């Protein structure tokens, strides 16, 4: 039997295909290998071309199975299911909060003005001063908890999703 009872799968949407390359070629060995979590079982001798094709096939299969997940520090987002987790705990966001988070997340390290966010997230083109964006950013930060530190205020300009959060939130609204 194999010395492993289960094979490693990483959390948070990351995936590494597991192929067993072995000289054990009985049906029982193959079944056991697949039962403990291998994506494929290749018996020696094998050609390098066959191995490469089997790895590519395992990656393609997994990409079709997995919804797109975005992971950043303690924050994990499933864009298709509109679900968010912080430190592996699901966070309930409204549709608008989710759009705000995704807009900032997809534009990492680029400042988004309040007017730009109003237009892109709310669909409002306004020349007036409004606290709507500030209020929603504050609520979003509160819901995200420790991951809320990634949403930074840029005084007099707007907000950005930062790759390394500021050590303090003195300039938060």
Order of helices and strands: EHEHEEEEHEHHEE
Task: Give the integer mean of the pLDDT values.
Answer: 80
Q: Tally of extended strands?
A: 9
Structural class: alpha+beta
Strands of the widest sheet, in order across it, are: 3-4-5-6
Percent of residues in helices comes to 25-40%
- Roughly what fraction of the amino acids lie in strands? 15-25%
Major β-sheet annotation = 4 strands, antiparallel
General form: elongated
List the uncertain runs: 1-14, 167-173
Span between termini: 61 Å
Number of helices: 5
What quaternary form is this? Answer: single chain
Radius of gyration over C-alpha positions, nearest whole angstrom:
23 Å
Comma- or semicolon-separated keywords:
elongated; three-stranded antiparallel β-sheet; disordered C terminus; alpha+beta; 173 residues; four-stranded antiparallel β-sheet
Concise account of the structure shown:
The chain is 35% helix and 19% strand. The protein has 5 helices and 9 strands.
Walk me through this protein's architecture.
By secondary structure, this protein is α+β, with helices and mostly antiparallel strands. The protein is 35% helix and 19% strand. It has five helices and nine strands. The protein has helices at residues 27-35, 48-65, 95-106, 114-122, 132-144; strands spanning 19-22, 40-43, 69-72, 75-78, 83-86, 89-91, 112-113, 151-154, 158-161. A four-stranded antiparallel sheet has the order 3-4-5-6, with no helix packed on it. Helix 1 links the parallel strand 1 and strand 2. Mean pLDDT is 80; it is low at 1-14 and 167-173.
């Amino acid at each position: 039997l194999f010395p492993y009872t289960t094979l490693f799968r990483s959390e948070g949407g990351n995936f590494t295909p597991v192929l067993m390359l072995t000289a054990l070629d009985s049906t029982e060995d193959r079944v056991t290998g697949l039962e403990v979590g291998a994506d494929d079982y290749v018996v020696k001798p094998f050609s390098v071309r066959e191995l490469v094709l089997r790895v590519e096939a395992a990656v393609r299969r997994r990409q079709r199975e997995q919804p797109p997940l975005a992971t950043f520090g303690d924050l994990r987002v499933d864009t298709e299911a509109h679900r968010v987790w912080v430190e592996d705990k699901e966070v309930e966001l409204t549709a608008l909060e989710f759009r705000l988070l995704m807009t900032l997340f997809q534009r990492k390290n680029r400042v988004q003005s309040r007017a730009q966010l109003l237009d892109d997230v709310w669909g409002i083109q306004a020349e007036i001063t409004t606290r709507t964006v500030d209020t929603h950013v504050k609520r979003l930060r509160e819901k995200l908890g420790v991951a809320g530190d990634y949403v930074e205020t840029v005084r007099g300009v707007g907000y950005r999703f930062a790759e390394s959060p500021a050590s303090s939130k003195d300039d938060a609204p």
